[in-house]
Write a structure and sequence with these properties.
With about 325 residues, the chain is mainly alpha-helical. The chain is built from 13 helices and four strands. A hairpin with a 4-residue loop joins strand 2 and strand 3. Helix 2 packs across helix 13, helix 7 packs antiparallel against helix 13 and helix 8 crosses helix 13. The radius of gyration is 19 Å and the shape is globular. It starts with a helix and ends with a helix.
């Protein structure tokens, strides 16, 4: 119950904090965009190659017949994208006009938690697990409003990526790593919002974007998707055989966060006793305490993280296709 309340508190304030950063013009945009543009687009493009003919036809029809509102401000400005790739980042933009969807992008499973029922970590306002379940229901319901179906499809395409980002299934009173300042190669962390104790880069933003971009080495999303799909081709059958289980996927991401995201840090971070966190100044100035550790993420950390990121992106693509194939068999 305590953990659930903590998760709810964080969700209710997280969007407000992000908006405050943006208005001040001081927060690094990738930190608020899970997997970044290239990561989410890559997941969608991998999924497309695994769709059955009916699912592919339905996805293309829904997205084409109900296009994204051209008035919506888009963070990812890549023109001429495949409809699925373009849809993959819509949910991050949409939450600016519907803050109630902000908490749908993650689930706060505390570090050190033993596997148990996942509902205790899902806010009554929703989390990535319940959001995926709800949006799948909309697509499965005959006669659903076409606009709502298109929105549900875009949410699913995005959240299938989010649930595979380890820091979207983990917290250590640090807002999913957002309150852990880190230096990443030549990028030196710096204070971007003194009132909120926000630094950039931080552990979350590095996992969202920097590691992906470093791995991709300038490849387009299409090229990167083809590379990952080929690399993990031999494992896709096992992923498909395991079936669709959102709880399992969240716990799997949580474990990878513990093992690699935190486990490979040069300066080890202790597991915090869960307490309410409204900003990075809370929990006895969590970001200030983490800053004092002087986390230097260089090649050793990149080498540990890269295989996890590559696998999670490939797995997210295959599993996204599994969700959609299950709807349109």
């Amino acid at each position: 119950m305590v953990v659930a309340i903590i998760g709810l508190i964080r969700r209710r304030i997280s969007f407000v904090v992000v908006v405050a950063f943006v208005v001040a013009g001081t927060v690094a945009a990738p930190g608020a965009k899970a997997w970044g543009c290239k990561g989410h687009e890559t997941v969608a493009l991998i999924a497309k190659t695994h769709l059955n003919p009916r699912a592919l036809a339905m996805v293309e029809k829904i997205l084409t017949d109900n296009p994204i509102d051209p008035a919506l401000k888009r963070y990812c400005q890549n023109a001429g994208l495949d409809p699925m790739a373009d849809a993959s980042t819509w949910a991050d933009d949409y939450r600016a006009i519907d803050p109630s969807t902000g908490g749908w992008h993650f689930i706060d499973i505390p570090r050190g938690a033993s596997r148990s029922g996942i509902d205790q970590y899902c806010s009554p306002a929703g989390c990535v697990v319940s959001a995926l379940e709800d949006q799948v229901t909309i697509l499965r319901t005959p006669g659903s409003d076409p606009k709502k179906q298109a929105e549900a499809l875009r949410f699913i395409i995005h959240f299938a990526g989010d649930i595979h980002q380890p820091l979207h299934a983990t917290t250590n009173n640090d807002r999913g790593g957002n309150c852990v300042p880190v230096n990443y190669f030549e990028k030196q962390t710096h204070l971007v919002n003194a009132d909120a104790g926000a630094y950039s880069p931080n552990l979350h933003s590095v996992w969202d974007t920097d590691i992906v971009e470093t791995i991709a080495k300038g490849e387009t999303a299409d090229q990167f998707a083809a590379e990952l799909d080929a690399e993990f081709q031999s494992r896709a059958a096992a992923w498909k055989k395991a079936g669709v289980n959102f709880d399992d996927w969240a716990w799997e991401s949580h474990q990878k966060a513990e093992q690699t995201t935190y486990g490979s840090l040069p300066q080890k971070i202790k597991v915090e006793l869960p307490v309410p966190v409204n900003s990075c100044k809370d929990d006895n100035d969590v970001s200030g305490r983490m800053l004092a550790l002087h986390e230097e993420l260089g090649q050793t950390y990149q080498d540990a993280a890269a295989p996890v990121v590559r696998e999670q992106l490939a797995k997210a693509g295959v599993r996204l296709a599994m969700i959609l194939n299950g709807i349109w068999k």
